[in-house]
Design goal:
Layout (H helix, E strand, L loop, with lengths): L7 E3 L5 E7 L2 E12 L4 E9 L2 H15 E3 L19 H11 L6 H19 L9 H12 L12 H22 L25 H8 L5 H13 L3 H5 L10 E4 L2 E3 L9 E3 L7 E4 L2 H8 L17 H15 L8 H12 L4 H8 L3 H8 L4 H10 L2
Parallel strand pairs: 1-5
Antiparallel strand pairs: 1-3, 2-3, 3-4, 6-9, 7-8
Helix pairs in contact: 2-3, 3-5, 7-9, 7-11, 12-13
């Protein structure tokens, strides 16, 4: 049995560290690129260090012990993929996912991997990539748009199906860019929406006040108030730590996700737009925070962040108790934006407050209160 340690080339000192929350506490992983002696480029990950300094030292130790410096970038051994290749879709998906390592968050790779495993590999996995003609892809697309959710027996939403289609398109674009394989999906017309888009739901301030008056648990009361009065994403609020909240501002620079690629129950990473934002605290929220005793290290949850399912179940209970119309927890974000629109806020200001783009605000959140619509109609003489 050969026990000689494998050796690698390394031509760059670039690496990235990632914070991760485990049952034992916060740890750090370090990720970098290496090239095998055969010329195949890989991503290497060293995991579970207590500090960023420990992670960096482990990287330096690994490079010193197992790597040879390549003065020029090592020649990559080409994967045997071309227009006549017998490799199947199932063969190339792992290659594509591995290439995403330093370009996407684990949660994004998790979503793509889930789409491939559920909707692409079962139908196209055994298909040689040379056989992905327009006709074959049209048949896959037709089958996809005819699928129903097994839990509800309802057709999947247009938006959900589009995300699945985009996952396959990303794979085919990668094959086209890297190996010159024609992306026939780009030539297919995407199906039209099957059903009208569901109207976005939100609460007015009066409806929120009716709801929050029934919330007797201080953790939930403060959590829901923070969502309604900041418009921030649920994961960003779950990830808050005690020192992120001051008397006048809240620092949002990380988010929580249960979509991990290892065996950890959750991860804490940078926010969706990779930004570090200080959000001002309005008067109603300031009052709610004053009545709350922060937990530590996580502001909501203590040793570990509060579970998103716990939040969702509590929300539904209090909605039923209050008698206000049913919305989702995420709709509190919509409610904040709608409130800002109602108050006459500039779209650019709203986008900055919720850490989104003006284009996305106009596309997704541009909904006026009924009273605002009537006020506009009344001005037409």
């Amino acid at each position: 049995m050969n026990t000689t340690p494998e050796r690698y080339y390394i031509s760059s000192n670039k690496f990235s560290t990632h914070e991760r929350q485990t049952k034992r506490g916060r740890v750090y992983d370090i990720v970098f690129r290496i090239v095998t002696m055969e010329g195949v480029e890989k991503q290497k990950k060293l995991s579970g260090f207590k500090t960023k300094g420990d992670a960096k030292q482990a990287y330096l130790d690994f490079v010193q012990e197992y790597c040879e410096l390549a003065k020029r970038k090592a020649v990559r051994k080409p994967v045997e993929v071309d227009a006549t290749s017998e490799q199947t879709v199932a063969d190339v998906v792992p290659l594509y996912l591995a290439a995403l390592g330093n370009q996407n968050k684990d949660s994004s790779i998790y979503d793509k991997k889930n789409n491939y495993n559920k909707y692409i590999i079962p139908q196209l996995g055994s298909e040689p990539i040379k056989n992905l003609t327009r006709e074959r892809l049209y048949r896959w697309q037709d089958e996809l748009w005819s699928m129903r959710n097994p839990k509800t027996n309802q057709y999947y939403s247009h938006a959900y199906l589009t995300k699945i289609r985009t996952s396959l398109s990303a794979l085919l674009t990668w094959l086209s860019d890297r190996y010159g394989i024609e992306n026939n999906l780009s030539k297919l017309r995407k199906p039209r929406r099957r059903t009208p888009k569901t109207k976005m739901k939100f609460w007015t301030v009066e409806e929120f006040n009716q709801f929050i008056a029934t919330v007797d648990n201080p953790v939930y009361r403060t959590f829901f108030s923070m969502m309604f009065y900041t418009g921030r994403r649920k994961g960003e609020i779950i990830a808050l730590q005690a020192d992120d909240v001051s008397e006048s501002t809240i620092l949002f620079d990380k988010t929580y996700s249960r979509k991990t690629l290892d065996d950890t129950p959750y991860s804490i990473t940078s926010t969706k737009n990779e930004q570090r934002d200080y959000s001002q605290i309005c008067a109603p929220l300031k009052q709610a925070l004053a009545e709350y005793t922060p937990q530590s290290p996580f502001y909501f949850g203590g040793d570990h962040p509060i579970h998103e399912n716990t939040i969702a179940h509590a929300f539904d209970r209090y909605v039923a108790k209050s008698g206000v119309k049913q919305i989702r927890v995420y709709d509190l974000r919509h409610s904040f934006v709608s409130m800002c629109v109602h108050l006459g806020a500039n779209i650019f200001v709203i986008a900055d407050l919720i850490n989104d783009t003006p284009e996305q605000v106009l596309k997704t959140y541009g909904h006026l209160y009924a009273a605002d619509k009537q006020a506009i109609i009344d001005k037409i003489k």
